[in-house]
Design goal:
Tail_sheath_C, Tail_sheath_structural, four-stranded mixed sheet, Phage tail protein, Rossmann fold
């Protein structure tokens, strides 16, 4: 308790009132891909040499990466006669105690030092030593010298990597696998944050699928495959919300992605597998019943600079990039449908579409909750439906609105947890939520929304237990999916025809 008596002035801060609520970041892509020839890490190294010819030794870190830059090597003059050459290790420090003759002069050559370091188990676990030339030159004592130049592997397997420039990262992705093509597709649409998880390409499709789906390493506890997306927020402070595994997403992979999406409050864009026809695509969509996934068929085509030829291009990768672009430029309340897609020049299958006729290939696919591709003023996605059987979440933007609102409201109130639950605190929470709803409504993200305190639900027993229920509702903005004009022919404009002639 604060001291009651004080001769002077005290200031007591009273931090009450509503807090501003920041909408969670939505344009963060979670990409799972393969890249067999992605750039490797660079091992740190250091050349320690002297004026004497052939007296140099190059030390190279045993493991590539920036950790090698912490390794240090030094040569020590023992300051005594007839000392023997010895190597000791302390952490990442390697100390070489040089040999001397009966006059206490150093006699160790570069070749002898390199051999001694490589023979010492702990030292050899850190570095490999290579003498310069024949190594016959005698070395001198020197202080600690750090290895330098170590660089981490840009896309280590089963490890989330945050990219702020997906276009610039293509150079490290190599030309094989799906990673480079996916990054190109995304960057064609938008510059956005991308969390990449690279998985190993197996010798068979089944082995690759296992690597993509991943799991948890039984020895280290590390999440692997697409499960590694779950650790991105703790590592980078961003949560992937636009998920996909372009060119790798069969029904099994998509099912696993949906499970991850539900944990992240994310949304999956998935291809219709190997569907050859629109009927196959419609049947493929029946594999899923989740609100967190949109099935897309067919694929795009376009020029591939890696092969200098036209090839099939993933529609999923472009959907992910376009979704991020819409989130940044328009809002999460706008569906993917009917927006131009960049970087493509064709569609892989013939899809008949007519703006005014529902009896088309596109109409059939949309009626079966499959988003398709059309060409009208550029190439576009056509369709806004999820795989949910619940009409409340039939549209892509309905699901994403629910996700964004839930995370925004929850994440914004960490400050309130464990504070004394006075009525003023409850009022501040409610007023803060309503202020956010007013902002969303003004910006067109929602049609309406409000929060309130339910006295019947918050009984004295509930409140005494430290629980508080705040209710809120909202109305998402429906996409204009079916615009109907009613056209009538009439003769009522002929009634005053004679008068109009006379007036003319």
């Amino acid at each position: 308790m604060a001291q009651d008596y004080h001769h002077g002035i005290r200031v007591v801060e009273i931090n009450k009132g509503t807090r501003p609520i920041r909408t969670v970041a939505t344009a963060v892509i979670g990409l799972v891909a393969t890249a067999p020839n992605a750039a490797a890490g660079v091992a740190a190294s250091r050349l320690i040499d002297f004026a004497a010819v052939n007296s140099g030794v190059t030390y190279t870190a045993a493991t590539p990466g920036t950790d090698g830059n912490a390794i240090r090597v030094r040569y020590v003059d023992p300051g005594s006669a007839s000392a023997t050459l010895g190597v000791t290790v302390s952490g990442s420090d390697i100390t070489v105690s040089l040999a001397t003759d009966i006059d206490s002069a150093i006699t160790s050559t570069a070749a002898e030092v390199a051999s001694a370091v490589n023979a010492e188990t702990e030292a050899n676990a850190l570095v490999t030593a290579t003498e310069e030339g024949d190594g016959s030159g005698v070395v001198n004592a020197t202080g600690f010298q750090n290895l330098t130049g170590g660089e981490d592997e840009p896309f280590p397997l089963d490890t989330p990597v945050l990219l702020t420039d997906p276009l610039g990262a293509q150079g490290d992705a190599g030309e094989e696998g799906t990673l480079a093509r996916s990054l190109k597709a995304i960057s064609d649409q938008a510059k956005t944050l991308v969390v990449v998880v690279r998985v190993a390409e197996g010798e068979t499709d089944e082995e690759t699928k296992t690597n993509v789906i991943g799991g948890v390493d039984g020895t280290t506890g590390k999440k692997t495959g697409l499960q590694a997306l779950l650790s991105a927020e703790q590592t980078f402070g961003v949560k992937p919300r636009i998920l996909g595994a372009p060119e790798l997403d069969d029904a099994d992979v998509t099912g696993a992605l949906i499970g991850v999406a539900q944990k992240l409050r994310g949304f999956v864009y998935a291809s219709a597998g190997d569907s050859a026809t629109k009927e196959d695509a419609a049947m493929y969509r029946e594999n899923f019943g989740a609100r967190e996934v949109m099935v897309i068929w067919p694929a795009f085509t376009g020029w591939d600079t890696a092969t200098s030829s036209t090839r099939t291009l993933s529609a999923v990768a472009r959907a992910m990039g376009l979704r991020a672009k819409l989130d940044n430029e328009f809002g999460w309340h706008k569906t993917l449908s009917n927006r131009p897609v960049e970087g493509v020049s064709g569609i892989s299958k013939d899809v008949f579409w007519d703006l005014q006729d529902p009896a088309t290939d596109a109409g059939y696919l949309n009626s079966h909750e499959v988003t398709t591709l059309i060409q009208r003023g550029g190439y576009r996605f056509w369709g806004s439906r999820t795989c949910s059987i619940d009409p409340l979440f039939a549209f892509e933007n309905y699901t994403r609105s629910a996700q964004v609102i839930a995370d925004t409201i929850a994440e914004a109130h960490l400050w309130a947890v464990d504070l004394p639950m006075h009525p003023s605190l409850v009022k501040d929470i409610i007023e803060g939520i309503n202020a956010k709803f007013r902002e969303w409504i003004r910006r067109g993200y929602l049609l309406g929304g409000s929060a309130w305190f339910d006295a019947e639900l918050n009984t004295p027993e509930v409140l005494k237990a430290g629980k508080l229920y705040i209710d809120y509702d909202y109305t998402p903005v429906p996409p204009l999916e079916n615009l109907m004009f009613q056209q009538r022919i009439t003769d009522r404009y002929l009634v005053d025809f004679a008068d109009r002639v006379a007036a003319a």
